Amino acid sequence: SEMEALAHIAEACQIEPSLSLLDNGLLLWLAAQSGERPSRQVNRILQNYLRQLSRLHSCGASIAGFIDRPRHASVIALLHLSSFALEEISEEGWRLNPYLGISDQALFRQILDPGYRSALFVQNSRLNRDFKKLGHEVHFFYLNTGDRNQIARVEVPQWVAQSPALLSLAHAALVEQCQLTGGYPYALVRAHELAVVTNADRQTLDAMIQNTLLEHGRMLQHSLKSETKRWTGKRRRHRL
């Protein structure tokens, strides 16, 4: 739904090119978690998601997925792999990685100045191969977002990565946006502010779910963890 909304706004935008921002990576998490054989429902959602990416591509928009405080170690793994000669690569050598526990974020915090980005890399996964078939293969780079030396991972589709103009737009716009807040895109900050789910909203949703279950002859049962939270309250602490 988020990607569909972005595509709709980008098509209506009179400024070309425009930049759409997604608060997360571009690879659809639901499909990534479904394994080798996604269900029909997951596959339907994935195909719709890819259609929205195609709409963004068609209207000349740039899009970037912004990941704050990334925990990935893809580049670290690549550096380890590059230390082997081709004939020396083995499963055992791969397991003896001396860089385990070091993240890409830690690496680029040492070498990227504020406002600078890394080279482009390609996300290697089964799901990304599906994206590649439709021209949406996900690439990524790391960006030092400002004076606090915060490193973000930015994901862009293939057609942005291969366009110097669209890639420069994504880079420059993110740096400008992050300067307004000290390291996080202002547009996403504002989106979070407008999309707050209040306790009243949550209670209304819970009531709707309970009513629907009752209409189908089902009783809602809370987990033991949920029940103990109700007993103790959020702010109380108990010691044995």
Give structural notes:
With about 240 residues, this protein is of the alpha+beta class. The chain is built from twelve helices and five strands. The protein has helices at about 1-10, 30, 40-60, 75-80, 90-95, 105-110, 125-135, 160, 165-180, 185-195, 200-215, 225-230, and strands at about 20, 60-70, 120, 140-145, 150-155. The longest helix is centred in the N-terminal third of the chain and has 19 residues, at about 40-60. The chain is globular, with a radius of gyration of 22 Å. It starts with a helix and ends in an 8-residue tail after the last helix.
Helix content, binned percent = 40-55%
Portion in beta strands: 5-15%
Main sheet properties: 5 strands, mixed
Oligomer: single chain
User: What is the gyration radius calculated from CA atoms?
Assistant: 22 Å
Helix and strand run: HEHHEHHHEHEEHHHHH
Termini separation (Å)?
Answer: 47 Å
Which geometry do the CA atoms define? globular
The parts where pLDDT drops under 50 for at least 5 residues are none
The total beta strand count reads 5
Number of helices: 12
- What structural category do the secondary elements indicate? alpha+beta
Average predicted confidence as pLDDT: 85
Biggest sheet, spatial arrangement of strands: 1-2-5-4-3
Key terms:
single chain; 240 residues; alpha+beta; 5-stranded mixed β-sheet; 50% helix; 11% strand
